[in-house]
């Protein structure tokens, strides 16, 4: 196995030994970031369901101690935790959750993470005497499609809530209205898949109004769809007041906006995945915020080729070579330590049983393709992560679906678990990274696991989410 040293060819900034580098050298002044990227309209005033969230909010309130009247800034959104028992008792609450769970061929749930994530908000509502009308999508149906029915979710929902959930056979209409009318305080009615209606994704006002007519107020707890302006995520807010965030949505935004906007430093971001094009926005945004940026996955070969290296038959986006060069230059200009792998695991074909070997990143032979980061790179990345206080991870280091090429991704997952146990804030930003930490069995020790793939990416890019913007502003808190 060839051993390679880190060099400027693979790192936007020449990297000295991490062990010999003081932590302060990785730090960028907090004021530098705050002046360039203020938080925009995203945040929460209430944190009743999450102690970590309470800590963040309390810290923010303390920071306003010299302000004469206002406490929480106007960007904050109203939370379900702001509503009192009097606000909820006997009220019909339309709750948009993200119950889009995977099902096997026998219609059995194979991963109930999203269902469990929705439970705290629902329990809070029913414990305060609300009547919950629960809405979600499942898959990408074309009209009424039986295999995408939410019926298989009812037993697990009922078990987790400790009550029998009633299932409607439709989303709107007279039969649904009758079920809503008969719903007792503390009861839960699960509507059918809201995407059975094409009007949902088109956000047609008439359909949104029909959904809203079922309830007295609205709670959005579906972070995974908050980046979509659909009838059940954005349209209904025009007809229901108050419209507030659920505890899951609240927590997602606190970590992905709060912790990333004002991180404990040094702050590292790990970005992987197959293509630069799918992560351009994320990389550019994180270069404004982080002190260390680690890149892995198939995208690295575009960066290598942009630097004049041979990449064999590895995945390369030819039209993104200039962009890769500009990102490396931008990292250097901003003082961000951007680390690319210095060695890679290559294969003679894209297959789980491919012949493989480890080579320096500068020595990939023709006909071979890179499918994972190598052991020297893992060590370099781990050493860098040892210096951090906050880490966010989005995207695998290699083709982790194949065990032979999952070593790099699993090593990162294990390292994050290790430093999380030492008090480092570790945020898994959705998508394949979540699958990786679950595969390794370390998900439970991470600070936060995001339930949204596309929503996480858009938020990390600095985009505003329609499903969040549509919610009521929080009432400023006097201090």
TrEMBL record:
<feature type="binding site">
    <location>
        <begin position="430"/>
        <end position="433"/>
    </location>
    <ligand>
        <name>ATP</name>
    </ligand>
</feature>
<feature type="binding site">
    <location>
        <begin position="98"/>
        <end position="100"/>
    </location>
    <ligand>
        <name>substrate</name>
    </ligand>
</feature>
<dbReference type="GO" id="GO:0005829">
    <property type="term" value="C:cytosol"/>
</dbReference>
<protein>
    <recommendedName>
        <fullName>Phosphoglycerate kinase</fullName>
        <ecNumber>2.7.2.3</ecNumber>
    </recommendedName>
</protein>
<dbReference type="GO" id="GO:0006096">
    <property type="term" value="P:glycolytic process"/>
</dbReference>
<dbReference type="GO" id="GO:0043531">
    <property type="term" value="F:ADP binding"/>
</dbReference>
<keyword id="KW-0418">Kinase</keyword>
<dbReference type="Pfam" id="PF00162">
    <property type="entry name" value="PGK"/>
</dbReference>
<feature type="binding site">
    <location>
        <position position="279"/>
    </location>
    <ligand>
        <name>ATP</name>
    </ligand>
</feature>
<feature type="binding site">
    <location>
        <position position="195"/>
    </location>
    <ligand>
        <name>(2R)-3-phosphoglycerate</name>
    </ligand>
</feature>
<feature type="binding site">
    <location>
        <begin position="137"/>
        <end position="140"/>
    </location>
    <ligand>
        <name>substrate</name>
    </ligand>
</feature>
<comment type="subunit">
    <text>Monomer.</text>
</comment>
<comment type="similarity">
    <text>Belongs to the phosphoglycerate kinase family.</text>
</comment>
<dbReference type="InterPro" id="IPR036043">
    <property type="entry name" value="Phosphoglycerate_kinase_sf"/>
</dbReference>
<keyword id="KW-0547">Nucleotide-binding</keyword>
<keyword id="KW-0067">ATP-binding</keyword>
<dbReference type="InterPro" id="IPR015824">
    <property type="entry name" value="Phosphoglycerate_kinase_N"/>
</dbReference>
<keyword id="KW-0808">Transferase</keyword>
<dbReference type="GO" id="GO:0004618">
    <property type="term" value="F:phosphoglycerate kinase activity"/>
</dbReference>
<feature type="binding site">
    <location>
        <position position="228"/>
    </location>
    <ligand>
        <name>(2R)-3-phosphoglycerate</name>
    </ligand>
</feature>
<comment type="pathway">
    <text>Carbohydrate biosynthesis; Calvin cycle.</text>
</comment>
<keyword id="KW-0460">Magnesium</keyword>
<feature type="binding site">
    <location>
        <position position="401"/>
    </location>
    <ligand>
        <name>ATP</name>
    </ligand>
</feature>
<dbReference type="InterPro" id="IPR015911">
    <property type="entry name" value="Phosphoglycerate_kinase_CS"/>
</dbReference>
<feature type="binding site">
    <location>
        <position position="114"/>
    </location>
    <ligand>
        <name>(2R)-3-phosphoglycerate</name>
    </ligand>
</feature>
<dbReference type="GO" id="GO:0005524">
    <property type="term" value="F:ATP binding"/>
</dbReference>
<dbReference type="GO" id="GO:0006094">
    <property type="term" value="P:gluconeogenesis"/>
</dbReference>
<dbReference type="InterPro" id="IPR001576">
    <property type="entry name" value="Phosphoglycerate_kinase"/>
</dbReference>
């Amino acid at each position: 196995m060839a051993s390679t040293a880190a060099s400027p060819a693979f790192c936007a900034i020449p990297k000295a030994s991490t062990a010999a580098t003081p932590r302060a050298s990785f730090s960028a002044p907090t004021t530098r970031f705050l002046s360039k990227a203020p938080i925009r309209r995203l945040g929460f005033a209430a944190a009743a369901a999450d102690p970590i969230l309470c800590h963040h909010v309390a810290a923010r309130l303390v920071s306003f101690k010299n302000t004469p009247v206002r406490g929480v800034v106007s960007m904050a959104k109203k939370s379900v935790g702001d509503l009192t028992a009097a606000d909820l008792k006997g009220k019909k609450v339309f709750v948009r959750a993200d119950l889009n769970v995977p099902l096997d061929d026998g219609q059995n749930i194979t991963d109930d993470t999203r269902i469990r994530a929705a439970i705290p908000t629902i329990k809070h509502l029913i414990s305060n005497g609300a009547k919950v009308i629960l809405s979600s999508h499942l898959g990408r149906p074309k009209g009424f499609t039986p295999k995408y029915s939410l019926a298989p979710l009812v037993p697990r929902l009922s078990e987790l809530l400790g009550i029998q959930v009633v299932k409607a056979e439709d989303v709107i209409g007279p039969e649904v209205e009758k079920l809503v009318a008969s719903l007792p305080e503390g009861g839960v009615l699960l509507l059918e898949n809201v995407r059975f209606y094409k009007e949902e994704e088109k956000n047609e006002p008439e359909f949104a109004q029909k959904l809203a007519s079922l309830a007295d107020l609205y709670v959005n707890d579906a972070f995974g769809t908050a980046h979509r302006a659909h009838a059940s995520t954005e349209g209904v807010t025009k007809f229901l007041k108050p419209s507030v965030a659920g505890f899951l949505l609240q927590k997602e935004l606190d970590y992905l906006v709060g912790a990333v906007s004002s991180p404990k430093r040094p702050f590292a971001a790990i970005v992987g995945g197959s293509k630069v094009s799918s992560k351009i926005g994320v990389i550019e945004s994180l270069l404004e915020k982080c002190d260390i940026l680690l890149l892995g996955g198939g995208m690295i070969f575009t960066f290598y080729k942009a630097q004049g290296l041979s990449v064999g038959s590895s995945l390369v986006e030819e039209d993104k070579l200039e962009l890769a060069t500009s990102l490396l230059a931008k990292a250097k200009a901003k003082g961000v330590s951007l680390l690319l792998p210095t060695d890679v695991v290559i294969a003679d074909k894209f297959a789980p049983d491919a012949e493989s070997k480890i080579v320096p990143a500068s020595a990939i032979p023709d006909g071979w393709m890179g499918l994972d980061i190598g052991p020297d790179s893992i060590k370099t990345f781990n050493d860098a992560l040892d210096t951090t206080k906050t880490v966010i991870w989005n995207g695998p280091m290699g083709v982790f679906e194949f065990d032979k090429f999952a070593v790099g991704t699993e090593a990162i997952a294990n390292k994050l678990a290790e430093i999380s146990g030492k008090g480092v804030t570790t945020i898994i930003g959705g998508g394949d990274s979540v699958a990786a930490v679950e595969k390794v069995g370390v998900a439970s020790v991470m600070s936060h696991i995001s339930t949204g793939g596309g929503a996480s990416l858009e938020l990390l890019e600095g985009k505003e989410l329609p499903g969040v913007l549509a919610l009521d502003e929080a009432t400023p808190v006097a201090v």
